[in-house]
Amino acid sequence: MNIRTNILLRVYLAFGLIILFAVAVVAKMFQVQVLEGEMYRAMADSLSTKYAEVEASRGNIYSIDGSLLATSVPEYDIRMDLLAGGIEDNEVFYSKVDSLAASLANYFKDKSERDYSRALRNARHDRQRYFLVKRNISYQDLKAIKKFPIFNMGRYKGGMIAVQENKRILPFRDLAYRTIGYYNVHSEAAVGLEGAYGDYINGETGRRLVQRIAGGVWMPVNEDAEIAPKAGADIIATIDVNMQDLAQNALKKQLIKSAADFGCVIVMEVKTGEIKAIANFTKTAEDTYKETFNYAIAQSAEPGSTFKLASYMVGLEDGKFGIHDIVDTEGGRYKIYRHTIRDHENEGVIDMKTAFERSSNVAIVKKIYLGYKDNPSAFTSHLHKLHLNEKLGLQIPGEGKPWIKTPKDKSWSGLTLPQMAYGYEVKMSPIQILTLYNAVANNGKMVAPLFVHEIRRLGNTVELFKARTINEKICSDKTLALVKEMLEGVVEEGTAKSIKNPLYKIAGKTGTAQVADGANGYRGKRKYQASFCGYFPADNPKYSMIVVVQNPTKGSYYAASVAGPVFREVADVVFGSDLEMVSNYKVPQLVGNTKMPEVKGHSKSSTQTVYKKLGVKALYASNNQEELGIDTNSGIAYKEVKMNKGLVPDVSGMGLKDALYVLGNSGLSPVVKGKGEVVNQSLAAGTPIYKGTKITIELQ
């Protein structure tokens, strides 16, 4: 084969391979475009556009008095299409970009004008169509920046894109924070009302068409959603803002004073079961307490002596003892199965009523043990009939499970029955204990606590919640009258007499329980839980309340000194603020003075105006002496202050604020000694004043 033939064979081979490759390409193109075209076109559409969910505006949460507890406010991310129709021309964009940068810098004051300009120019160079300008701005900010250069050209010409998100805010900040709670849609974490009523509050999400652009970013195709979201319903909580604030402040103050680990307060309306206030605080640092856990509903623990109400109720109802039965407390020490039951003090021989009022452990242990030792299930089954072993079925999640032992439990021992008598080897949460006391206040009718009063949508009631009865009658009227008498006696003569109020009656029970120290049990470091549970006014109860303070480490750890003052402070203010309750009580009349009140010197006309508005009259107006320049018509003596220009004024009898005002306006430089009212001045009244003259005033 010659060289020419060899070359031609190679050319034909190469040409043939090219032809085959071209045919293969054409065949593949035909397959993709014709045979499989529909499939790939649908795939392309699904990859470049999709429907994204649009978050609905969540419903509000209101207090029972109409105050806003939680709401959603819109926040916006501002983005920009740098290739929008109105700024497609470079001349238009670059002539206005610096003005836009200056407006952004002046308004937000977070970057310089140069930084904004550089960022916008770089985004333009990179042909970005979804450039982030600013995150998390308010609606007011949005209205303002719509007027900025370029942005004022509109969505499609100026390229401004506002992406809305809803931010949840609490106008009262930490007020009832844990009760209001939160709902995390991503982790499905549900806390408080936000979590329990998420189906109502969350509303219905909408849909919006979005398109994927360079960088994998999804940009809305249209400004408005194709399917508009439906706003959530509003929740009307039973919380009263004023009571809630009062309860939180009183509790926090006591926790700081006692250096306690944590504490809680619950205020409940007797008839309806509505929770008016619920406060929980945990120590996070020295003298710092925050609401991190809802102890009031979730913390099941041994209640201690507040449980004696249940023990007395069962014993009285079963006829095991009467309140006038005599019991020997044996010097405050009662040994049973190598374990000694102790009283705080040696009560000696007392009746069962006095034992309750003074919180004798020995007395109730002896009566319950002797009455039920042969049939302990009779005692526990009666407790179960009171529904103390059942959850209350609260409207918010997280309720602790109560534990009332029975002889069938593996942990039952010979000590269990006597221990249960005074609140050990049982577990209940504060709200479960309060529900029992509230039933006594409610003439024996046990109702479940309510946290939500109503659900509304667009102002219309969707659902209205009323008191749910757990037990129509917890005991006989006779037993009920006896336990009410004893609960009042605790405050009148017993362990809680320090919180007695002469204006209205409080009924309740103290509880000081030793708390187990982890794995060390009761042999480790001694910790105590102080609690007081009761209701007021005792003769016509409207509110019940429980206060629990865990591990007070400063001062006393007894309930009367730790939990009692919180109860009294909250109850006093609630009682004094409720016209209905106050009107049912005759307030003692204070006897007036026979000596007329003293009045500080001031302007005659101003003083007369004040007297006239207040309607103040002295008891003995005849004591006034008209000849001394004292107005006898008002019945109260006063002295008019006259100021003569250039002369030292007389400020005797004035308070410090008035004296400084008068002396300062006279051109004097006052030096102050003491406190109270002015009793002496270094310069006599009427003395000529020279510029910069100092005057010393003494106050007592």
Automatic annotation (TrEMBL):
Main localization (coarse):
membrane
Q: Which PROSITE patterns does the record cross-reference, listed alphabetically? A: PASTA
Molecular function terms from GO: carboxypeptidase activity; penicillin binding
Query: Keywords of this protein's UniProt record, alphabetized?
Result: Carboxypeptidase, Cell cycle, Cell division, Hydrolase, Membrane, Protease, Transmembrane, Transmembrane helix
**Membrane-traversing stretches:** 7-30
- Record localization: Membrane
Q: Which SUPFAM superfamilies match?
A: beta-lactamase/transpeptidase-like, Penicillin binding protein dimerisation domain, Penicillin-binding protein 2x (pbp-2x), c-terminal domain
What GO cellular component entries does it have? plasma membrane
One GO biological process this protein is involved in is: cell wall organization
Out of the domains of life, which is the source?
Bacteria
Q: Where is the PASTA domain?
A: 642-700
Query: Known PANTHER family for this protein?
Result: PEPTIDOGLYCAN D,D-TRANSPEPTIDASE (PTHR30627), PEPTIDOGLYCAN D,D-TRANSPEPTIDASE FTSI (PTHR30627:SF1)
What is the protein name stated in its UniProt record? Answer: Cell division protein
Q: What is the lineage of its organism?
A: Bacteria, Pseudomonadati, Bacteroidota, Sphingobacteriia, Sphingobacteriales
